[in-house]
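Our preliminary data section would be incomplete without showing what the modeling component actually yields. Below, a chain of 324 amino acids is followed by its predicted structure, encoded as tokens that our downstream tools consume directly.
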Amino acid sequence: MSFTSEVRGELARVQVDDICCIRSELAAAFRASGDIGWSGQGRYALSVTAPDAATVRRYFSMLKRHWGISGEIQVLSADALNGLTRYRLVIDPSEAAGLLEALSLLENPGPFGVRQVPGEETTRFACCKKAFVRGAFLLCGEINHPEKRYHIEISAPGEAFAARVAECLEYFGLQPRSVERRGRQVVYLKRAEEIADMLTLMGAASAVLTMENIRIRKQLSNHVNRQMNFDQSNINRVVDAAEAQIRDIHYIDQEIGLEKLPRGLRDMAYARANNPETSLSGLGELLDPPIGKSGVSARLRRLTDIADKLRSGQAVRFRKGDGD
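Predicted structure:
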């Protein structure tokens, strides 16, 4: 089952008791489905087609409970829909006009009297705006699984409907974007925080928890990977530095011999050459007497300086700080 189907299944179980929210959600669903037509003689052909049986059963129950309308549920042939099964709730033509008017979708009787979006009173309250977005998503919404990428969208049947969806989302502080795709206006969000907020306002609490768990796991995994990369980079730098130091020590030995070095530098050279993987602190503990990390670093830099002078043909003069 896709993540979209999981979210739709959860939304189809959201309990709504206020008639204003029921009216708003149904208005969005019927308009988003696009199955509204004029059948003549003052009648309308009205149905809602959904990809999930739970959605159709939800609206069947709402219509029966609040308007006494018993629609007919049909299962559309999968063969006729490229292998996809769809479920349709068909309203009796004798009751369609009254329902459209109750949902504020009928502007005036006639073949061109159906509104592109319900009247503004349908989404007057915050709870109704949530219901409107929920109805739109149940009929034409999609969400990617958060394991793959963050993206949620509502493919609206027209610009006016898309604008109403965007208006509802903006009311709650979200910033949806819109793009035209295959003749439909798509309203979408791509930020994880905003997607979680949209799921919350629609009523998909379980989906939010799933998404948040995945997001936390991703963040932890990214942190661990960054730390491992950082540690590996440090190891590589230490190894590269040790290899360069050993090359300098071998060059000094070839040119003048390590025995010519003052004792402090000579002991440091032998300690590093014999312990290529030991840390600076560890090298300091091998010396007699032991010295600290800064002292080891200073002596290794001095050995590098001597090797550089030998390579360039300069005279090497030992200093008092080089040791006895």
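Residues 245 and 301 are 9 Å apart (CA to CA). The chain is about 55% helix and 15% strand. Preliminary results of this kind motivate Aim 1 of the renewal.
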